[in-house]
Amino acid sequence: MILACNWARKQKIPFLGVCLGMQCAVIEYARNVVGWKDAQSTEFQQDTTTPVVIEMPEHHTGEMGGTMRLGLRKTIFNSAKDSVIYKLYGSNNYVYERHRHRYEVNPEKIDDLTKAGMFFVGKDETGMRMEILELKDHPFYVGVQYHPEYLSRPLKPSPPYLGLILASVNMLEKYINRDCKFSPREELHCPESSDEELTNSRTQTPTSMTDDMTLTAQSIIAKPDAAVRSTLKRSAHSVSSSETSFVEKKRAVEATVQQ
């Protein structure tokens, strides 16, 4: 994981470190940028001379039950209003995300890490627990202590994951410049399709489930609103057809019995 952090940082590859991923990003940066060659987490090496990741006070060594930091917790953004992750969250002063961890970035090492260019743009309510890190002069290098996937939804994707995907296709800057509003039809330069064309494409009989999924994906990308309407119409038609078929079979059975 540390090698992956190093590669992403040096090669300007979009990177999102979640929980342990964020901690590994800190270890890699401490070793190769700050210069602490023996930087380590006490989870991996209890006697390390440079503990950049440590056990939280809530966690007692040797006791595993009921010692994790769990649940929905508040993360407050500091004065770094030019932060990419801050903008992805809608420029709100704070967010709530779900957690599950026992280790944290060592508060005593924050000043040195910050001076070296690693910015902790989100912290807990005490200001002592690091929640979000970010590197400048990088397409997207973000680490979060929480688990953003817990609150991610199909129609409301988690901001950190959305940022990672957009950065991977070179669309993050456009998205942010549009006040974090995104139109697949306009930005992906997909060809326009009429409602009739989309309806016809959705009513084609696919040769397999994979073909059906492909048609749906192509329709949604080309024209999302029309695609949704078309899919709903097709679903309603399928239900209606099934009900009609059942009624016809029932009548046929009743006619046979009467004879």
Question: Which structural traits does this protein have?
Answer:
single chain, 259 residues, alpha+beta, six-stranded mixed beta sheet, 10 helices
Describe the overall structure.
By secondary structure, the chain is an alpha+beta fold. Helix content is 44%, strand content 19%. The protein is built from ten helices and nine strands. Strands 1-9-8-7-4-5 form a six-stranded mixed sheet, sandwiched between helices. A three-stranded mixed sheet has the order 2-3-6, covered by helices on one side. A hairpin with a 5-residue loop joins strand 8 and strand 9. Helix 8 (195-203) packs across helix 10 and helix 9 packs across helix 10. The chain is elongated, with a radius of gyration of 26 Å. Mean pLDDT is 77; it is low at 186-224.
Terminal CA distance reads 75 Å
Number of strands: 9
Note the overall shape.
elongated
Low-confidence stretches: 186-224
In DSSP terms (H or I, runs of 4 or more residues), the helix count works out at: 10
| Mean pLDDT over the full residue set | 77
SSE order? HEHEEEHEEHEEEHHHHHH
Fraction of helical residues: 40-55%
Topology:
Blueprint (H helix, E strand, L loop, with lengths): L1 H9 L4 E4 L1 H15 L4 E3 L8 E6 L13 E9 L6 H5 L5 E8 L1 E3 L4 H6 L2 E6 L6 E6 L5 E4 L14 H10 L3 H6 L6 H4 L7 H9 L5 H14 L1 H35 L1
Parallel strand pairs: 1-9, 2-3
Antiparallel strand pairs: 3-6, 4-5, 4-7, 7-8, 8-9
Helix pairs in contact: 1-2, 8-10, 9-10
